[in-house]
């Protein structure tokens, strides 16, 4: 994945402040992996706003911290999961909490509002609002295609790694960018090989 030296410590204060909120739903794994994908996608889409994309991907799922883990698993991954109450709640809590984090880290109001607009509905909105939103939505999904993502998420969905990888193949079409689709296909190929999914 991408080395963080390209941005130095520009976002380090946001990482530090939000770190306690990343202890829910494996976000301490999901968010760093998704952040790395966001940084890779930014290279392909130079018209996107680096700060808004980077901050939104760091903060997009911290709202899960406000929700009971049992509810997350039972309601957040079941039938109609993308329209479940907990999905909407994690988005609204994420907007609220991201504002607190970004204010504490002294980011300007314009950035706080733009980040909140992406977080609001990032799972439940059917369409992206901007290029920045498209990149965040893809980065949020791309980690699933990695070996780590399959290992974590297959348990959430009560599937074997092979079953979950098949599900991911069917979801390639929901990625918003061409670069994101190519990254997903590459990662899934590596995951299939690493987990020997042609055999087990």
Brief overview, please?
This protein is mainly α. The protein has helices at 12-18, 27-44, 50-59, 69-76, 85-104, 109-119, 131-142, 147-156, 161-170, 178-194. It contains 10 helices and no strands.
Describe this entry's structure for a reader:
By secondary structure, the protein is mostly helical. Helices cover 62% and strands 0% of the residues. The chain has helices at 12-18, 27-44, 50-59, 69-76, 85-104, 109-119, 131-142, 147-156, 161-170, 178-194. The longest helix has 20 residues, at 85-104.
- Strand proportion, as a percent range, falls in under 5%
Radius of gyration computed on alpha carbons: 16 Å
Secondary-structure element string: HHHHHHHHHH
Name the structural class.
mainly alpha
Number of strands: 0
Intertermini distance = 27 Å
Largest sheet: none
Mean pLDDT across every amino acid position: 91
Low-confidence stretches: 1-5
Which range best describes the helical content: under 10%, 10-25%, 25-40%, 40-55%, 55-70% or over 70%? 55-70%
User: How many helices does DSSP assign?
Assistant: 10
Principal-axes shape call: globular
Q: How are the SSEs placed, and which strands pair?
A:
Elements (H helix, E strand, L loop, with lengths): L11 H7 L8 H18 L5 H10 L9 H8 L8 H20 L4 H11 L11 H12 L4 H10 L4 H10 L7 H17 L6
Give descriptors for this structure.
200 residues, mainly alpha
């Amino acid at each position: 994945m991408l080395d963080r030296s390209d941005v130095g410590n520009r976002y380090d204060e946001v990482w530090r402040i939000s770190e306690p909120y990343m202890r829910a739903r494996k976000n301490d794994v999901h968010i760093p992996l998704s952040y790395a994908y966001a940084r890779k996608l930014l290279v392909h889409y130079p018209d996107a706003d680096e700060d808004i994309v980077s901050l939104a991907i760091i903060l997009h799922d911290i709202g899960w911290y406000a929700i009971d883990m049992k509810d997350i698993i039972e309601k957040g991954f079941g039938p109609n999961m993308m329209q479940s109450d907990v999905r909407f709640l994690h988005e609204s809590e994420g907007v609220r909490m991201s504002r607190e984090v970004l204010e504490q880290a002294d980011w300007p109001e314009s950035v706080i509002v733009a980040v909140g607009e992406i977080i609001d509905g990032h799972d439940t909105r059917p369409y992206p609002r901007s290029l920045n939103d498209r990149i965040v939505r893809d980065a949020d999904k791309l980690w699933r295609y990695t070996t780590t993502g399959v290992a974590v998420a297959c348990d959430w969905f009560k599937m074997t790694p092979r079953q979950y990888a098949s599900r991911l193949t069917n979801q390639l079409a929901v990625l918003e960018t061409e670069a994101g689709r190519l990254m997903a296909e590459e990662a899934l190929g590596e995951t299939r090989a690493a987990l020997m999914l042609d055999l087990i």
